[in-house]
Amino acid sequence: MGHNVDTSSISFTALYTGHVWYANGLSDDAFHTRRGSFFYHALAPFELVGKSLVGGDIKTFLLQRHHLIDHLACKAIEEDGVTQVLEIACGLSPRGVRLCEKYKSLKYVEADLPDMAARKHRLLAAEHLLSPRHQVVPLNIFSRDSVDSLETVIDHAFDRNKPLLVITEGLVNYFSTESISPFWQRLAAALGEFPTGIYLTDNYPLLDDHPFRRTMRLLGGMLGTVSRSQVSFHFGSDQQAVEHFQAQGFADTTVHNPRDYYDALPIPRTRGNPFVRIIEGRVGSDTSE
Ligand SMILES: C[S@@+](CC[C@H](N)C(=O)[O-])C[C@H]1O[C@@H](n2cnc3c(N)ncnc32)[C@H](O)[C@@H]1O
């Protein structure tokens, strides 16, 4: 039942997505890496395959998910009074820097496996961006009862009297539903100790009627091979995602489709139904139900 704790073979993918954010004006020069740039250009042929077969290239769904998570995080801060954020599997994402810049009293803790966390720590330290309210810590979602476990990080970093937002982007699809679900249960339990607990994650439902099911499986298979992980599409429909999240403890779950945000956000459009969704799970003593 327990998942292999060493999943560091996935970490290089953060260099690729980090370069996508950089190349699209979402982060500055400090976030540029030579390897990220190399992967970005090396993957161009796959994007061509994606574009012709899937009706939207990889960058399209990456930008859709990134902007939509930003939007929902800002909404949580502005409308739900969130003042503290934990971003797990932060990689080289510039979100923490951007949100700390925008909201001057926000506490933002970025977390990743030890090597990636150390890398992000060095990057932010070199830019003089670290402070008590903006930190980077090691966290492995499969660790239990250790310094890098979810529960320990939450215990040390956050005030249980204030709402907490947790984000994972580009993480959960590297694991089977069976492997990741215990983490979701632990997260729902941990967030339940806050007045409001909100979780945002990206997900790629393998819709029954999706014309590109085979292509999605192919792309997933390729990514699983290079990252030595079990890339999985967790749900067959948005409704299934809602039911599964409720069963893990997220009483109030909403699935956001980028299509519904085309007019509101600067996101590229997909021909047809987009691949990616953002799942918003809520728990906490202030959450009704
Ligand atoms: C595709 S990258 C996403 C990075 C960033 N969120 C983004 O969107 O640019 C996947 C990230 O998951 C991290 N990761 C892999 N296994 C993990 C685990 N067991 N616990 C926490 N993070 C993990 C990797 O180190 C890597 O930074």
Can you walk through the features of this model?
- This protein has 289 residues and is of the alpha/beta class.
- The protein has one domain (9-283): 3-Layer(aba) Sandwich (Rossmann fold).
- It has helices at 13-23, 34-42, 44-54, 58-79, 95-102, 114-126, 150-157, 177-191, 213-226, 238-248; strands spanning 84-88, 107-112, 134-138, 164-168, 197-203, 252-256, 277-283.
- Strands 3-2-1-4-5-7-6 form a seven-stranded mixed sheet, sandwiched between helices.
- Strand 4, helix 8 and strand 5 (197-203) form a beta-alpha-beta unit.
- Helix 1 (13-23) packs across helix 2 (34-42).
- The longest helix is centred in the first third of the chain and has 22 residues, at 58-79.
- The radius of gyration is 18 Å and the shape is globular.
- The two termini are 30 Å apart.
- The relative contact order is 0.15.
- The model has no long low-confidence stretch (mean pLDDT 91).
- S-adenosylmethionine (SAM) is lined by residues 7, 10-11, 13-14, 17-18, 88-91, 93, 112-113, 116, 139-142, 169-171.
The main β sheet shows up as:
7 strands, mixed
Indicate the multimeric state. Answer: single chain
Which homologous superfamily in CATH is the superfamily? Answer: Vaccinia Virus protein VP39
Query: Radius of gyration in whole Å, from Cα?
Result: 18 Å
* Shape annotation: globular
How much of the residues is beta strand, in percent?
5-15%
Structural class: alpha/beta
**Mean pLDDT score:** 91
- Report the uncertain regions: none
> What count of domains describes the coordinates?
1
Supply the CATH architecture.
3-Layer(aba) Sandwich
CATH class: Alpha Beta
Give the neighbour order of strands across the main sheet: 3-2-1-4-5-7-6
Helix content: 40-55%
